[in-house]
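Annotated sample (chain length 497).
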Amino acid sequence: MAELTLSSKNPTGVKVDALVVGTQTTSDGVAVVGDDLPRDVVAELEALAPALGITGARDEVRTVPAGAHLKAGVLVLTGLGARDASGSFPAETLRRAAGAAVRELTGASSVAVALPAADEAEVAAIAEGALLGAYSFTRYRETAAGGKAAGPVATIEVLTSLARGAKAKAAVERAATIAAAVHATRDLVNTAPNDLFPAAFADIAKAAAKGTGVKVTVLDEKALAAGGYGGILAVGQGSSRGPRLVKVSYSPSRPHAKVALVGKGITFDSGGISIKPAKGMEAMKSDMAGAAAVLHTVLAASRLGLPVAVTGWLCLAENMPSGTAQRPSDVITIRGGKTVEVLNTDAEGRLVMADGLVAAIEENPDVVLDVATLTGAQMVALGTRVSAVMGTESVRSEVVTAAEAAGEQFWPMPLPEELAASMKSKVADIANIGDRFGGMLVAGLFLQEFVGSTPWAHLDIAGPSFNEGSAFGYTPVGGTGVAVRTLVELLEARATK
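Output written by the structure step:
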């Protein structure tokens, strides 16, 4: 990850490969947001803006020659849109503007970011956005000449008058921890499924936890069978690479709260016997994004020293068709004894999550949150950038509030009781599918069967977890790391209750 520092240098004299400043949309056109830039430079840029196609819109990034007045190699103009009613820019606007600019500068070594920051919160947003934008996944890529592909920006200076303040430094340290957790989540999601299978994921979790004080416990097939984890075993039985349940525990002394996180970790989802169409199946390597987010949220909580006990449950399996795979009409027994008739083997995520939820609730947490790329219906309802959250009303609201503070989009969804009837089974306690219409809500209702009276929220991140379109803001193509920032924000809020 890029090295980020705060600096009180004047942007005019900073010697870097690229200097980033903001542009804003105004009633008169475009204004350059840079009080410390030479007036002649600002006036020239604003005069040339129409010819250069610069509008100041969000996510707009333009690179122009720095000119003789600046020491930087090039000048990068990043759009901030219009100011809000208070005359400032929202934190997420600053975060995205910094991230968009730094993301576009792949291959550059050093960058200085001079965006408006009136307080430590705005400094933190700029720092976090810049670090989130400084990401690329090059594990499998080499240049034609045989050398490694160009990596992200190596060093970033955030220019601010608050550079020497203790609060600003602490905010940047937090931003670096959050960005590192998001990057690590993205790396897992982007890893090829031949390299990331359940046992490999478990090994990665153990390696990542070394030196953090986080304890990792791994249950293999024998331990899962002994523990009655019928959902995870059934989903994983079609693969030659067996399933795992990984427990990741952060246990500070005298915690203010006890939180359980359950993550869906289908390392590849073919759909099993109910096989998916070939088109788009390559994206199913991302079906473990929930487990990746849970792992790195727990590790981030440890690194931040939060006074909250957090236990993550990574429900890992590979859903493959074979002679040993589960069949439509099989009946399986989830941990705790509830039976499920499997009517569609492609509705497998809820089966592994049921086991994880039961295990998590056995430890009596104050609240349990599950994170899963659970349904295609989530994308039908909310698209590819807005995640869904459903569950206990108070916890659902807590997630939405945390997401707004973190800069992620989660939309509250209902759990209509009438849809539960569609999951009635003729032979078991419940079927794993129900009505097609409202499928995202049906999946949530299925999970609700396994949480009892524990306060709970279900986060469906199916679309936002993997960006198959173009990069935008600080979000790259591929794994996005969604939910990590929201979960950390929620844990921090719990720490103060």
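Annotation: The chain has a mean pLDDT of 96.
Annotation: Residues 415 and 441 are 6 Å apart (CA to CA).
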